Amino acid sequence: MRLLTHNMLACNIKGVTNGFPLGIDATRVETKEVEMNPDFLKHIFPKLRWEAFRAAAHSLGIDNLPEQVDSNMLLDEEFLQQFHHALLEVHLEEGALICPETGRRFPVSKGIPNMLLNEDEV
Amino acid sequence: MWYLCYFLHRLLEYRLPEVESLAKIYLEGDPAALKEVRWKQPPNCHSDSPFYYINLPSEDIARFIASRSILVKGIFEVWGVESSYEELRLAIENYPEDRKTPYLSADSTFKVIVDCFGKGLSLKEQTERINSLDYIPFQGRVNLKSPQHRFWLIESDNDIANKLLLPAMQKLIFFAREIGLSDRSILTKFELSRRNYLGPTAMDAEIAFIMANQGLVRRGTFVYDPFVGTGSILVAASHFGAITMGEDIDLRVVRDGRGPDCNVWSNFKQYDLPLPIGLIRADNNSPPWRSSLKEIFHAIICDPPYGVRAGGRKSGGRKLLKGTKDPYIIPEEKRKDHIPSTAPYMFAECVHDLLDIAARLLVMNGRLVFFYPVARGECYEDLYPKHECFTLIASSEQILSTRWSRCLLTMEKTAEYTDKHAALALQKHIEFRERHSELLDEREESLHSLVFAPSKIDNGLNDKDALPKYRGKHV
């Protein structure tokens, strides 16, 4: 699971109002190189919640993302590379996502987050 | 300029929308030029005829359309079209010289291809027809392997007495210069019988490519399939350069497959395609997206489970929703490794959820492409699901049996998703939940029983059967 997916997901258990961002409990993290697509990064950038993205990257050991960002920074090759790396090259392979409100754990195994809710949660 | 668009004679209702979608991809950002893309037919042609004229702004777009299309055979510049060879000669001679000479010059190489729609021609018949063109002043040399210019002599067979075609086409003979041909070799490469990991409802490669074309997929398009299964639709989208994401409720399919080398990922590796950017196990009925997530996907392309070969499932507990069990809380010590039971997911509810999530997650002008099953009849328009945010672009029927068809619906997001839409969808969601068991009973009338119920006994007295049939319908 990439951090892009993490930034899109939330805990939607019935009654939960603050299910985003999900905490990360990482057991195994992998890095896989992929080709960069600047247009895609530009499309995704305004859709992201940056603070949550930066915090998630931090919990996987990536500390080079700036705190404040704006779309002009996408013209900077170095920033684009860091952004690309954190967004698409780092994978949470084994671990769990944790709801910030209830502490409910959504397991991640073989890189697939299991977001299915229990009978009493929908 | 008007070009001849010569189609393959299959998936007839899918042909024009596919070409229109490809034109839209090429002419993105030029709506004025897109408006000029128009169709017309040779006189007396049935709408099922493989011959259409299309008005396109350039040869480049014609080449692009032909190269990406699955259902176009080729696109041509017509030098003459008549119903006899004598008239054809006059027409070619009267075609403007300045359009002809550049392709007939002495330093060029060329080839003539003879094609007949509805009949195979022997080599002798082909040679005779080529030789009859001796009045065209070809100066160049013949090169059968890699000529610079290809000319086509396309005939239609008007011997319709023994054909299952409507007698709606007069004989046509075209002489035309080839602009571009389609490349259907990808269908062989991607055919399901060679696919590593297959499920019972894996999408046929040809249809999957057409769906990707309908979704306006090009390099960098972000495509989402909420019923990803073995990934057959995303494989096609990925081939055209899409960045893909998939979701499925079945963990065994989406995570495990049949082992480490036979799963959704391996279906992409098999063709050296980029892997999906994310696969998620979740329920389309209680989607896992954060509420602020909007307008992120360029296209949502899917085949929702309509309960004939595979039924949909949703979370909430089978017995709970049916009302045979009182609500309960799972004890804390049993939460870990608890496997929640899933309940049947009614198709109407599934489509409602799909339209709502698509209206929210698609960018403006993004496309939703999906199959919708219908009982066979004359008019489907009123049955199609509607949403204020979507405009129906195309609907194409594929007949599956005498009883049912599926229609490929292409919708475009033409209005913003607002809080009003969200509130309405939530209300409907609660309604579906409350009426779950009632709707479950109604399923007796559903598509599944329509498809599999025993046929009524008619003692062979059904005089309808005596009428000739065309495309499965009585005429």
From TrEMBL, chain A:
What GO biological process terms does the UniProt entry carry, in alphabetical order? rRNA (guanine-N7)-methylation; tRNA methylation
Q: Which GO terms describe its molecular function?
A: protein heterodimerization activity
Q: Which InterPro entries match?
A: Trm112 (IPR039127), Trm112-like (IPR005651)
Question: Under which name does UniProt file this protein?
Answer: Multifunctional methyltransferase subunit TRM112-like protein
One protein family per Pfam: Trm112p
What family does this chain come from, according to its entry?
Belongs to the TRM112 family.
List the Gene3D superfamilies hit by this protein, alphabetically: 2.20.25.10
Record's subunit section: Interacts with TRM9.
From TrEMBL, chain B:
InterPro entries registered for this protein in UniProt: DNA_methylase_N6_adenine_CS (IPR002052), RlmKL-like_Mtase (IPR000241), SAM-dependent_MTases_sf (IPR029063), TRMT11 (IPR016691), TRMT11_N (IPR059073)
PROSITE patterns linked: N6_MTASE, SAM_MT_TRM11
GO cellular-component terms in the record? cytoplasm; tRNA methyltransferase complex
Q: Where is the Ribosomal RNA large subunit methyltransferase K/L-like methyltransferase domain?
A: 194-316
Q: EC number(s) on record? A: 2.1.1.214
- Which family is this protein grouped under? Belongs to the class I-like SAM-binding methyltransferase superfamily. TRM11 methyltransferase family.
Protein known as? tRNA (guanine(10)-N(2))-methyltransferase
Q: What is the lineage of its organism?
A: Eukaryota, Viridiplantae, Streptophyta, Embryophyta, Tracheophyta
